[in-house]
Amino acid sequence: MIKPLKIYGVYEIAKKALRRLLLEEAHHKCLLCDRSLPSNAPIHHKDGCGLNWARDNLIILCFQCHNKLTLPRQNTKGRAYKK
Fold first, then answer.
1. Could you tell me the sign of the dihedral formed by the alpha carbons of 12, 34, 49, 72, in that order?
2. Contact, 31 vs 59, CB < 8 A?
3. Is 43 within the bounds of a domain?
4. pLDDT at 15 over 50
5. Of residues 55, 48, 54, 52, the one with CA closest to residue 71
6. Does residue 60 contact residue 69 with C-beta atoms inside 8 Å?
7. How many contiguous H segments (helices) and E segments (strands) does the chain have?
8. 8 A C-beta contact, residue 73 and residue 48
9. Would you give the DSSP letter of residue 30?
10. Which of 8, 15, 35, 77 might form a disulfide with 62, Cβ 3.0–4.6 angstroms?
11. CB atoms near residue 2 (< 10 Å)
């Protein structure tokens, strides 16, 4: 599995900026249940691939909805999706 290049600090800064953008676009509400979102709300990859950071593949959800979508796909090795 290919891992994204992680230059100290750059990846985290970009992820925080993206999360802020997604939160603003969603008006700080979960896109599934309309709950208010905290500033550390999870970014969900619609296709289940954590390496696909394409904007049209990302949505912001509350922790409960993110777990409902992600946990059923985990296999025994704890991967986020099956191929």
1. positive
2. yes
3. yes
4. yes
5. 48
6. no
7. 2, 2
8. yes
9. -
10. 35
11. 5
Number of domains in the chain: 1
- The one-letter amino acid code at 34 reads D
Question: What is the per-residue DSSP string for 41-52?
Answer: PPEEETTS-TT-
In a domain, 72, yes or no: yes
Whole-number average pLDDT of the chain? 82
Pair of tokens at residue 46: 């619609």
- pLDDT over threshold 50, residue 42: yes
In 3D space, the residue among 60, 55, 62 whose CA is nearest the CA of residue 23 turns out to be 60
Domain range for 56 is 30-83
Residue 66 lies in a domain: yes
Task: Let me know if 63 is exposed, middle or buried by CB neighbors in 10 A (0-12, 13-18, 19+).
Answer: middle
Residue corresponding to tokens 């954590």:
50
Q: Give CA–CA dist 24/42, Å, rounded.
A: 14
Q: How many Cα atoms are found within 13 Å in the side-chain-facing hemisphere of 2?
A: 5
